[in-house]
């Protein structure tokens, strides 16, 4: 099994993730030699329905370093991109310490954690 793709969200516009957490995680990713994609703001990409979200969702397993799993699930869904239920791990920088986030990134084990709920937010089609 290949390594999951990595997506790092800098949460630039919402500014809901502690700056020190974002800095530590981005520094780790940059120094690790791991391939990853970094985006300024996943919410913005979703609002623009950026096709890169669909490409990433269809690429196999993925770890998304951002915020709450439910929010990330529906940000992708609103862009017509369905993350694989058993192939996506969302690493929440809002609730985890930098060390915990880095630990999840260093783990070769994928811990899928998308919520199974099908109740969609208003204005979003269910995946």
Explain this structure.
It is a single chain. The chain has 127 residues and is α/β, with parallel strands linked by helices. The protein has one domain. The protein is 35% helix and 14% strand. The chain has 5 helices and 4 strands; from the N terminus they run βαβααβαβα. It has a 4-stranded parallel beta sheet with strand order 2-1-3-4, with helices on one face. β3 (62-66), α4 and β4 form a beta-alpha-beta unit. α1 (19-32) runs parallel beside α5. The longest helix has 14 residues, at 19-32. It is globular and about 35 Å long.
Give a short overview.
The chain is of the alpha/beta class and 127 residues long. Helix content is 35%, strand content 14%.
SSE pattern: EHEHHEHEH
How many domains comprise the coordinates? 1
Largest sheet at a glance?
4 strands, parallel
Spatially, the strands of the biggest sheet line up as 2-1-3-4
Q: What is the alpha-carbon Rg in Å?
A: 14 Å
Low-pLDDT stretches: none
- Per DSSP E runs of 2 or more residues, the count of β-strands stands at 4
Principal-axis shape equals: globular
The helix fraction, in percent, is 25-40%
Number of helices: 5
Structural class: alpha/beta
Relative strand content = 5-15%
User: Can you give the mean pLDDT?
Assistant: 92
Q: Please report the distance between the alpha carbons of the first and last residues.
A: 25 Å
Summary keywords:
four-stranded parallel β-sheet, 127 residues, alpha/beta, globular, 35% helix, 5 helices
């Amino acid at each position: 099994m290949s390594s999951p793709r990595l997506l790092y969200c800098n949460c630039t516009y919402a500014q809901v993730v502690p700056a020190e957490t974002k800095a530590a995680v981005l520094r780790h990713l940059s120094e690790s030699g791991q391939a990853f994609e970094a985006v300024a703001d996943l919410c913005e990409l979703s609002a623009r329905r950026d096709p890169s979200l669909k490409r990433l969702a269809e690429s196999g397993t993925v770890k998304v370093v951002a915020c709450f799993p439910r929010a990330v699930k529906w940000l992708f869904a609103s862009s017509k991109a369905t993350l694989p239920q058993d192939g996506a791990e969302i690493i929440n920088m809002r609730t985890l310490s930098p060390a915990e986030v880095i630990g999840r990134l260093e783990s070769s084990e994928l811990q899928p954690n998308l919520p199974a709920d099908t109740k969609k937010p208003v204005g979003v089609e269910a995946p």
